[in-house]
Each structure stands twice: as C-alpha cells, then as structure tokens.
Amino acid sequence: EMGHMRSDNVTGSTIFVGSGSGIFFVRTVRAALAKHLSSSSEVVSEMVPGEDDHVHPQSPPNSLWNRDEVDFSSPDQIQVDPSITFDSLVRWSESYFDIWHPPFPFLHAPSILELFEKVASHGVSPLNSIESIVVRSVLSIAVADRRQLPACNETLVPSTLIFRSIEDAVSCLVPILIQPSTISSIQAAVSIQVFLLSMLRLNTASRFSGLIIQMAFHLGLHRCPTRYKQFSKPEADMRRRLFWSIYSLERFLVQSLGLPLSLKDDDVDVCHPQEENHLEDDGYGNITYPPHELFLLPEFLARNSQIKGLILELRHKNIKFRVTDPDEVARIDAEISRWWNDVQDFIDPVSTEDDDLYTAEANATITHLKPCHRLLLVVQKHEAVILLNRPVITSGSSIAIAAAMQKCIGASKAIISIVFQHLQNSLRSEGSRDGRIQQPLFWPGFTWCVWMSGLILLYAASDGCYSVSVAERLANRCIKILDNISLRGGFWPGACAATIRDLQQALQKKVEND
Prior knowledge:
This protein is mainly α. It has helices spanning 23-32, 86-92, 94-100, 109-122, 129-146, 166-171, 173-178, 183-198, 202-219, 233-257, 296-315, 326-347, 360-368, 371-389, 399-430, 445-462, 468-485, 492-513; strands at residues 4-7, 14-17, 70-71, 157-158.
C-alpha cells in the first residue's frame, strides 16, 4: 500500500487515497512526463475520479438542476399537486427501473409502485421519512439519467419529489440514524448512496458505506437467509438481493478510492441466487426460483466484486502482510477467466447452442439483457485484468513485469474500443447529434476505467512498450468517451479528459525532443 496523503487547505484536515485507486500509478505517469507538461497543468490531474467532492465549486441550493429539468414552481408538500398522477410517476422513474434496478435490485419494485399510488392520491405528506427518501432517490436518479437519454416531451418532475442538492440528499441521513435499523431504512440509505454514485460523488457515497454495512450487520444481512425459518421465501429473496447490492457497491467504492475492505468474505455466508447451499436446512421443501436470467446480472457483478476484493487484499495490503506469491496471482487470474467464461455464456448464449440453433431460451436471455448492462459486464472483465496487473508495471524490468504491461495494454485497448464502439453505434443508429443515447454510459466506473486505460497506454508508449501513434489515437477516443459521460453534469469526467489531453501533449513533446 503506497497511497497518498494530502493536506486539505480548505478544512485543515488530511485526505488519504489508497493505491488501489491508481493514485500511485497516476503520479508515476505524471513523473515520467513531468518535464514535458505545461506549467498550467492543474493539480487536480493528480487526483482520482471521485476522491474529493470538495473540488466542486460551492453552489446555491437549487443549482444541482436546471430550470428545464425540474419544476420549481410546484406546490409545497402539504398540498396535493394535480399534475402528479400515478402514470406520470411511472414515466418519470422509467429510466431508474430500466438502467439501475437490474444490476442493483435492492428495492422491491411493487412496493415502490404502491408508494407512487399513495403520492398520486394524497401527495407527499402521507409518506413517512423513509418512504419519502426512497421516492426522492429514485426520481432524482431518473432526472439525472435524462441528461444522457434522448430528449423527450415529458413533463418536468416537481422539485418536491427530488433532492434539490447533494447536501439535501445527505441531510436525509438523520431520520435513518435516529430510527432503529430495518430493511426499509437500509434500503433508503442505499438509495441515497446510489444517487450519490450516479452523480460521481464517490467520497460522500463512501461515507454512507460505513453506516450501511453496520446496519447490514445489525440486521444479519451477512448471514444466508435460507438458513433461518423465520424468513418467508419473498423475504429471503429480498434480503439476498439487498445484501449483494450493498456488497457490490461497497467493493466499487473501496477500489475507486483505494480504501480497506469493510465487508470481508470470511464474514459472509450469503449464497448467490443460483448457488444456494442451505436448502437442506430451510424447511421449505422444493423452492421455485425466479427465472434464471433475472438475477444473473447482479450475481455476476457480485462475483466480480469478490475478485476485486481478492486483488485489493493481494496488491494493496500493509507491507507487513502483503503476499507476493506468484501462485496467488495465478489463482486470481484463473478466477477472472472462470468468471468471464460464465459471463460469455450469459451474454452470448447462442454461441453455445448445438448446430447453431437459435433457441427460445437463448433469445429470451439476449432480449432481457440491455446493451448498457452487457457493456458493463464486458468492461468489468478487462478492469479486473488491469487491477491485477497495473500495480507491478512500474516496479522495474523483468519478464513478469513485461508480461503484466502487455496484459494491461490489451485490457486498456479493449475497454476503450468496446466503450467507443458502443457509443458510436448508438449515436449512428439513433441519429443522435447531441450525444444522448437510449443505452447511456450510466455506470460511474466507466469514468475510472476509460481514464485509467488512457493513462496506461500513454505511459506504455512513453516507455517504449507500445506504439505512440496508436496510443494517441486511443487517447483521443478516451477524451470523446469522457466528454459524452460529462453530459450527466459531474466534474470528474471533464477533469479526467483534461488530464489525458495534458499527458497526450506531453508525450508528443517527448517524442519530438527524443
């Protein structure tokens, strides 16, 4: 664990970013090209996406949304707004259930629809604080999604139904803290966290993780619900979905910020939906599981998150406890391959059919998985390769290090090419001129992956391990991708694009001088 300790001149405190985030590599790349960087290169280019939310300029309470995104003239919460109907609430929240709910099904969709019916009939005031948080989180995420989706003539969401600012969202933590832990309250906390993630406020979202994980422990979510007879089948399913959503989100945050794991695998015995090991103890007899493909997406994300945890424990532990056994590296590499082989059968089931028969079952799986979710799974594979190999590519020169460099180059090229192709195909097929597409680059991790891929290729080119011209061309693609992600309105995609642009220019100067 190298990491980096910063002094915060604003608060007078310190900020630590662990090397799992890539911060040590970022500083190494900048050092390699330092004498060719312009003096105007900003300090923020030595930061990792989402590490500090205070770099966002101070803003008025309502500035999170524009006037053409939210209706600020709506009545207060005491009055019933006749423009808020059940159908309008369903339409406003459509992108949340299309994009965010499939990978992270921590909410019970029918229960959300019941809340919508209550709001449509009686307004917001009858909702308790927990119910209000969930509704506002879902609709706030959906409003942010609109920035990346094609323009529509839908009416604006009233400001009473969303978070007006990041501070407004964070302040909702108070009722969660003062009430006893329940499934509903932890769902509300996770819903705020997902909103913060969707806006790339990773530092703030990570602070929620501590509360969420302790609540999960209090509720016993880290224990497989099938072991306990007091849970009905629907309750057990919901607890399992909630836990693995929390787990995947936590692993994303600790990797992005280089923090120690909060959820250790040896403290968890919750089974995946398709790998239940406690049926003999549950007393239910024959259990009929939901359709196979419904929970494979979150299951694959959770399994990939487990691999991320193995990598963080291998590569970024305290130096006294760090293991450098090549067999452990090979074991994790095998886990990545095993996971990817299973994912390929899921995202491309037709290729596994005998005699090229296009079965109804295979077709159902393909139509169920949206292109943006397929892209997420593919990127996760190459991201894992980078996470495993990147920490050693600046360690000197040896055959093992050279091999790790080439693996990082291959994974970086794949991420940039796959994401860029998804973006270009969508823009072309939809005729989009403003960058908005039906299957947007929604996942906040896309920013980190594309940014890190660009840095790796530029570093490899500067070190003579890769073609300079190809690295520059792929860096241009990184910038275009990040510019598209910037449509959502966050600070970091644009900052990451600027960093790549600076390093690209520095590489050009280095080549000219050499």
